[in-house]
C-alpha cells in the first residue's frame, strides 16, 4: 500500500471519524493488551499502522515525556491528522514516519516495544512485517498485536441473508487487496518463525445490543463501506439496500444482538 487510494477502507473524513469511534469502543481491550506487554513510562514504543493516531495519543500519555512514540503509517493524510492531534495536546514526544509496514526501516534494537492493531490483516506479507519489527526491537522487548482471527464469525440475530452477503463481500474485498481477516489465527506461527516467543494469546469476542455503543461500531463501518462494495461489484445496489433494511429492523428490535468477529490479542517477546 503506497498511495491513499490503495488503503482499502479509505482515508477520508468519514473514515477518520469512524476510526476515532472504533478506538473508543475497543480502548479497554487495547489497554489490557498494553498492560500484558508491560508498556511503561520512559519507553520508546512503535505504533505500527498508526492511522490518524488515536492509539498513538494514548501511548504517548502512557510513556510520558520521558519516553517516545514512533508512529508509522503509509498514509500521509493520516499522519497529518496525527500531527495535528499531537500538536493540539502538546505531545512533542511523538514522531510520525511515513513508511510501508512491509518495508519498515528503523534502527536495529532501537525500540522498547511495538504495537499493531488491525494492521497485519491488511498486509499482503505479514511475515515480512513481523520480521522487520523483530529487528527493530531491543532484546527482551514485546510486540503486542490486536487483529482479526475470524472476521466471518460475526453473527447477527435474528439472522439476515443480506447481512451475511455483505460480510462475505467485505472479507473478499480485503483478500482482493492482498490482506486476510484470518491473520490472527496464523500469527503465533509467523511470530515464532521470526524468532519471537509467544507469551500470551487471548480472544476478544463481545456481544452488542441495539442500545449499546458497540452496536454503532459495525453500523458506522458499513455506512462508510457499502458504497465501496457496490463500486467494486462485490455486492449489488439491491444487496446494499437489503442490508440497510435488515440492520434498521434489528436496531429497532430489543431482542436483537450482534456477536463481534473473533479478535485475538497477542503478546510476543524478542528473546533477551
Order of the strands making up the biggest sheet = 3-2-1-4-5-10-7
Give the biggest sheet.
7 strands, mixed
Radius of gyration: 19 Å
The proportion of strand residues reads 15-25%
* Secondary-structure element string: HHEHEHEEHEEHHEEHHEE
Helix content: 40-55%
**Distance linking N and C termini:** 33 Å
- Low-confidence spans: pLDDT under 50, at least 5 residues? 1-5
Overall shape: globular
**Counted beta strands:** 10
| Average pLDDT figure | 94
What structural category do the secondary elements indicate?
Answer: alpha/beta
Question: What is the number of helical segments per DSSP (H or I, 4+ residues)?
Answer: 9
Which helices and strands occur, and which strands form pairs?
Elements: H1 13-25, H2 27-37, E1 44-48, H3 54-63, E2 68-73, H4 76-88, E3 94-98, E4 113-117, H5 126-136, E5 142-150, E6 155-157, H6 161-176, H7 183-194, E7 197-204, E8 207-208, H8 216-231, H9 237-251, E9 257-259, E10 262-269
Parallel strand pairs: 1-2, 1-4, 2-3, 4-5
Antiparallel strand pairs: 5-10, 6-9, 7-10, 8-9
Protein model, in words:
The chain has about 270 residues and is α/β, with parallel strands linked by helices. Helices cover about 45% and strands about 20% of the residues. It has 9 helices and 10 strands. It has a 7-stranded mixed β-sheet with strand order 3-2-1-4-5-10-7, with helices on both faces. Strands 6-9-8 form a 3-stranded antiparallel β-sheet, with no helix packed on it. Helix 1 packs antiparallel against helix 8 (about 215-230), helix 5 (about 125-135) packs across helix 7 (about 185-195) and helix 6 crosses helix 9 (about 235-250). The radius of gyration is 19 Å and the shape is globular. It starts with 12 loop residues before the first helix and ends with a strand. Mean pLDDT is about 95; it is low at about 1-5.
Amino acid at each position: 500500500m503506497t498511495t491513499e487510494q490503495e488503503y482499502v477502507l479509505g482515508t477520508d473524513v468519514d473514515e477518520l471519524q469512524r476510526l476515532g469511534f472504533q478506538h473508543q469502543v475497543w480502548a479497554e481491550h487495547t489497554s489490557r493488551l498494553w498492560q500484558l506487554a508491560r508498556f511503561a513510562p520512559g519507553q520508546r514504543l512503535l505504533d505500527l499502522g498508526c492511522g490518524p493516531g488515536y492509539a498513538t495519543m494514548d501511548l504517548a500519555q502512557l510513556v510520558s515525556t520521558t519516553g517516545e512514540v514512533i508512529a508509522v503509517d503509509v498514509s500521509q493524510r493520516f499522519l497529518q491528522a496525527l500531527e495535528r492531534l499531537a500538536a493540539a495536546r502538546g505531545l512533542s514526544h511523538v514522531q510520525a514516519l511515513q513508511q510501508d509496514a512491509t518495508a519498515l526501516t528503523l534502527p536495529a534494537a532501537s525500540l522498547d516495544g511495538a504495537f499493531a492493531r488491525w494492521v497485519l490483516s491488511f498486509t499482503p506479507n505479514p511475515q515480512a512485517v513481523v520480521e522487520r519489527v523483530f529487528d527493530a526491537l531491543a532484546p527482551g522487548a514485546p510486540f503486542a498485536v490486536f487483529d482479526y482471527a475470524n472476521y466471518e464469525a460475526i453473527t447477527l440475530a435474528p439472522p439476515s441473508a443480506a447481512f451475511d452477503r455483505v460480510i462475505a463481500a467485505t472479507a473478499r474485498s480485503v483478500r482482493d487487496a492482498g490482506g486476510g481477516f484470518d491473520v490472527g489465527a496464523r500469527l503465533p506461527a509467523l511470530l515464532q518463525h521470526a524468532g519471537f516467543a509467544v507469551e500470551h494469546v487471548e480472544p476478544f469476542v463481545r456481544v452488542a445490543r441495539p442500545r449499546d455503543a458497540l452496536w454503532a461500531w459495525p453500523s458506522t463501518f458499513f455506512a462508510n463501506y457499502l458504497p465501496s462494495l457496490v463500486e467494486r461489484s462485490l455486492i449489488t445496489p439491491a444487496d446494499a439496500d437489503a442490508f440497510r433494511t435488515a440492520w434498521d429492523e434489528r436496531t429497532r428490535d430489543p431482542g436483537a444482538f450482534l456477536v463481534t468477529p473473533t479478535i485475538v490479542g497477542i503478546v510476543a517477546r524478542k528473546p533477551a
